[in-house]
């Protein structure tokens, strides 16, 4: 009631406003598009992330290899010390492969040297069994030859004195071992 009536804008102002709006649309669209340098920077960042993940995987693989080599070196040093220890006893091992068994009751350990054992798949391992006079078997440990290697050495832990056992046998068992032998003996020795 007290308001001033609206007046239409002059034709010149209206034409300028329409021209600005029409010119502003392409500018707004070009502002939304990402500049080439931003695409390159994003691509470089993704490439760096991929390289870092790849490098981390390689470092982890090298650490696993180093741990395996350290364990192998430790086993070989223990085997050498058992061979050199004066109270160690040596036994011939025969069967599908040949070798030598060195046991030391005083040190409660031994080492098995075998030539010609077949490599096994990842689902299987060799298990050492210490044989008691009543025929019961006690696990002496697990080992797995490296593929393509003709020789393997395996450390054996004696749970009791050597005099409690009359022999040793090795069987193929599922990976992780078994509570008792599940396959025929591959190699063995009599004490």
SSE-based structural type = alpha+beta
- What's the number of domains? 2
CATH superfamily of the largest domain: Superoxide dismutase, copper/zinc binding domain
In terms of DSSP E residues, the strand content is 25-35%
Main β-sheet description: 8 strands, antiparallel
CATH architecture of the largest domain: Sandwich
Residue-averaged pLDDT, rounded? 89
User: Strands of the biggest beta sheet: in what spatial order?
Assistant: 5-4-7-8-1-2-3-6
State Rg. Answer: 38 Å
- Supply the number of helical segments: 2
Low-confidence stretches: none
Plain-language structure description:
It is rod-shaped, with a radius of gyration of 38 Å. The N and C termini lie far apart (122 Å). A hairpin with a 2-residue loop joins strand 1 (89-95) and strand 2. It has an eight-stranded antiparallel beta sheet with strand order 5-4-7-8-1-2-3-6, covered by helices on one side. Helix content is 37%, strand content 29%. It is of the alpha+beta class and 191 residues long. The protein has helices at residues 11-32, 36-84, and strands at residues 89-95, 98-104, 109-115, 124-131, 137-143, 151-157, 167-174, 187-190. The mean pLDDT is 89. It folds into two domains: 10-84; 87-190, Superoxide dismutase, copper/zinc binding domain (Immunoglobulin-like, Sandwich), CATH 2.60.40.200.
């Amino acid at each position: 009631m007290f308001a001033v009536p609206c007046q239409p804008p002059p034709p010149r102002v209206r034409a300028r406003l329409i021209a600005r709006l029409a010119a502003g649309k392409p500018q707004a669209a070009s502002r939304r598009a990402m500049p080439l340098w931003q695409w390159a920077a994003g691509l470089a960042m993704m490439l760096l992330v991929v390289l870092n993940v790849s490098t981390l995987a390689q470092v982890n693989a090298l650490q696993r290899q180093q741990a395996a080599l350290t364990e192998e070196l430790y086993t070989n040093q223990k085997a050498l010390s058992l061979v050199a220890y004066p109270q160690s006893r040596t036994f011939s091992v025969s069967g599908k492969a040949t070798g030598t068994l060195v046991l030391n009751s005083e040190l409660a350990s031994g080492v098995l040297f075998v030539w010609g054992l077949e490599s096994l798949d990842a689902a299987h391992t060799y298990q050492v069994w210490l044989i008691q006079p009543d025929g019961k078997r006690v696990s002496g440990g697990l080992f797995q030859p490296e593929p393509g290697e003709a020789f393997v050495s395996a450390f054996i832990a004696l749970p009791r004195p050597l005099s409690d056992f009359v022999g040793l046998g090795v069987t193929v068992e599922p990976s992780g071992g078994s509570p008792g032998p599940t396959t025929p003996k591959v190699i063995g020795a009599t004490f």
